[in-house]
Protein 1
Amino acid sequence: MPDTPHIIDSCGDQTARHPRLHVRISALASEASAMHERLVVHCLFTGHARYFRRNMGVENALGGFIVTNTFSGSGVRFVVRNRSQCNSLVVPGFRARRRTRCGALARVRGTGSAPGGTPDAEARHRPKPGERGLFPLVAPREDIGRYFVGERRILDERTARYPLRSTVEEVLAGITVAMALLPAAASCALATGVPPLAGIVSTGLLCAITAALGGRPGMISGTSAALIILQAPLYQQYGAAAVAAAVVLSGILQLFFGIYRLGKFVRLISYPTFLGFISGIAILTATSQVYAFQLPAGTGLSPGAPWLQGNMLRAALIVAALAAGVAHVWPLIIQRLERRRPDSTHRWQHRLAELLRWLPSPLAGILVASIYAEVTQAPVRRLGDFLRDTLAQSGAIGVSWAALPSTPLAWMAILSTALGLAFIGLLESLLTMTLVDEVTESRGSTRRECLALGAGNIAAGLFGGVGGCGLLGQSLLNTKSGGRGRLSGLTAALCLLVLARNPSGLMIRIPVPAIASLMVLVALGSFEWASLRLFRAIPLADSLTIVSVALMTVATRNVALAVLFGVVFSALVFAYKASRRITAQSFISEDEQTRGWRGYRIDGPLFFGTAERFSRLFDPARDRAEGHEHVIIDFSGSRIWDATALEALDSLARQYRSYGIRLHLWGLSRDSARLLREARAYIDESVTNENALYLYERVVADYPTNDSLEVEYELFAKRESGNAA
């Protein structure tokens, strides 16, 4: 038996009811089996035990609480226990490295053999009355934690060992994100035409709803510049009520997408398209921070505003460089302190490193830059100045639905805008969620994200705000600051709403250039620099896809158009490559009974891209001149995909019939046979006439056949023969 078990303890944690838990346990079981280790699961609620017995195929149960099962094919043992037996578990020969409270993932190093998996074996290892057993320990995150993403939180070593630090980091990350959300929300609202206060409130509502109900903890949502190109023209033509109606309708459409699980179609986006999207958004995020180095225009911040001059520009650049520099070197300082030997001389350095870890690096950069600006009285714009400039132009929150236009032309514009907002918002949110999944080494729920985004946009529209979606830059800033759960997003939304209604406190003294420099730093980190080195190693078409999608994203700011171009271009490249890979091998029968028969073995897909090349592989005139009366086409290495392929087969059958040759098909897959059956009334009857199919092996006797396909298609041929009779 393996002597190093993994013990997973779900004490007091309802995440064991997660519908994807058994999938993650399966992945962990396979890894443990490959490492010759043993996996034990402790489930302390009766409902949890019932869930494992139902979903994990557990067979043996003792009183409905202790259940054991060997995972199929892995040799890993699962044990589910209830609360009363948790602290009474004794595993002989095992020593604990540390003890924790309930709710922790655990790993125990073994020095002896593990107990058996049967109820009798488990009973032999129960302690005597009053004897305290061994409790699970905290596991390294890279061993177990990455497979378990709960509904409430991500289970990892930090959360289990330091719940207070985890909470503090989430709150501080939310405060940092709120500082970055505020200028973006106000600028997007001004660019659309609605009052800035309405844009800030709608961003706060959207961020709160997606953080609480979304499928990706740690992801930040808000107003996006990609949606301005659709909302601004509608506002100029029909007013704020039309924009609010379009936002509400887009939320309803996103709810529809979530209910019917249409978010899964994001898988159709190729990896080069994804790289181009990430690089384009990173460039947009970096270039949009120039507002911090411009003077405020008469109607708010605009691209044509004049640049800062003299001491103001110099001070803004110094503050920005200081904030970015501190945020960059902060983790390096902590690592340097932790490398010291933990003796009496360097003990204070380890304590200092533990203390510095409580402060996220982006927030450290903002604090240092703020202290410098206050001490030197630097002439830089503060967050309070920005709020006064923007909120002074704000009107009342809400929308007058009586002003909603009623003409058919106006509603056509509203519906088309709503459709664009829903599609672009979902696309940018799901792509952002994919990147956050990679950063956090976990997987979110596209369905829940679609539903939460729809609910958030409905709430934003009812308050007269603008639509929003997932924000790549702010989401990466959140994860970089230590925000991996839902608390960081809720904190950011709360701070945003409080600042919008009451701009006071220490946050209004924060320099705007410091926030902008952090967003530039995040954009530089999110840019796919590795794709530049891949250009020589990947096909030219993929390189062109990356560059074209990135440039189109930057030039048009239309994420949907850029991604759609990447998907279509990738599909055309694939179709072109596949169209050149269809071949045919010819076989001539030498048997007396099958003389006059020719066989063709087709390799490659048959679809609209290969139909013309497929037709050129055959020569009915030559086959007639050589005296062949029957032709058999072997499709065991091919597949019929679409109507163009059916039309090519029909045309080929008619050509052969004009020369007095009958065409027979063999080795069709189930889908190909179904296509032929459904198109029977429109296809030449000689295509599906299989009366002489039993002679196929004599025609190409030396070619290996697929028994399952042969039997399946013989049944189909008999059924067709019976129908013909």
Protein 2
Amino acid sequence: MQCVSCGHPELTERTALLNTPMLTVLGLDWSDRNATLLVCNGCGYVHWFLGKPGKPPGSPAEGIECLECKAFIPPDGDECPTCGWTWKPRL
């Protein structure tokens, strides 16, 4: 990943507590959610993520290597196009 502001390739990971006033009053800050921050080492821009940064849900995977013949299984495939190996149980 690179900075969306300046394109710098180096980012430093930090965490931030997303506290709510009521839980703070009750002394329950520990139960609030955390956010992951990636701070650009070039310009200081802060990228915020709920959870760990990575591919967005529903984004296509890169596919996998077949455990049987080492061929490439595309991300939308359920079985190897070369040898037919699958990780799903056959009925």
Protein 3
Amino acid sequence: MGNQQVTVHPIGGACMARDGSPETGVTTHAG
């Protein structure tokens, strides 16, 4: 995973964003 941030979840996580933008991750400016 390198330097990617992931969510912590009992059954897995999701990549927050590979470049810090909502277009490449699962979150937006609203969370």
Protein 4
Amino acid sequence: MTMSRRIPVVICGAGPTGLTLSALLSRAGVQSVLLEKEQDLSDHPQAHFINLRSMEIFRHCLGGLDKSVFAASPPKAQWSDFVVCSSVLGRELARVDNFKNDAVRMGQRVTSVEAARSSSAQGPAVTVADAATGAREVVLCDYLVAADGAHSSVRTACGGGPGGPGQILGQAGLGSMVNIHFTSPDLGDWLKREGRRPGMLYFVYRPEVVCVMVAHDVERGEYACHVPFFPPFERKEMFTPEKALETVRYALGVQAGSAKAPHIQLVTARPWTMGAQVARSYQPVPRVFLAGDAAHQFPPSGGFGMNAGIQDAHNLAWKLAEVVQGRADAALLSTYSSERRPCAASTAAVSVLNLRRSLRVAEALGIDPDAPAALARLLGASPDHPGSSAAWAAGKAAMAVGRRHLRQALSGSTLQVLI
């Protein structure tokens, strides 16, 4: 194991939050090292919407990055509509118009953190393992920023457990989802062929699948399909590549092998859990800060997650620069948590409100979003627990009844509901 020289700031996690923080610190003249456990960049889509405040940060603080974002963005006409439908190519029920970095070291997994005992003590010691060689190194720093996602190992190591200062509080388990990333270069042509303007979000309701499809880039054929599943009656393992492709075809309203079907290529299918949670403190121990998903998680309704992380980085970067370069007392850093945490708490509340509003469409079609959880509780209280064959059969039968009800509801007129 080797020991590195001391570095002012170590950032754990090279997602949007960590990259933004690294770029901002670099522009402020503060040296940092950005550690990312993955060896390559991920092409699996997650966030897809950058809001006004984040664009302001890109424009004023990152050398006009907003222009590059605009240049890479699809046309506004393809991103202004939310569409509720029986399938993407089927019946439409409703339509709403609505950098330069310091060192980035890929394949570096943080295995342990020895935090400072006080703000006046020396900074954290971060032990890092190289994914390719297994070699270990201790990186010394004045400040450590955890931007390593919802399952942050740094947060866990620095008081993220129950009752700890970094504990995540709020509503966990709001839903179990699978994000199916697929490409279809000709799907956009099919959408236009139907005489419609492509939308940004498609809320699909049909007996075979209920999901939200995100059109990341119609011209390049990049899409993601977010599909809920309901433990214990359904499991993430059921989404094999074949099942994922079948689900996408149902969502599009096409059959495999049909001459009229657009070509579909599966990229990845990954499960995730929806929650609305905020850390008890953004500075759980001296000289360690939480940012992005390590500090907060929101439902995707509203597109706040990545944007909140970018804004965390903006708030923290200039304060770190002032303190590291000796222009401000370290007490300035305590304002990061007091300023950003209330923003996250209010954003979580708005996200949950948006989620509840979006479920009005399902309720108008006679679907009770809380029914699977209620059924699981009911069966869990019975002698035949949810894992038993009898409870499993009862759950599947109840879901089949729900599908028949939805089929009948979809046979009616165009949906009229305030969303």
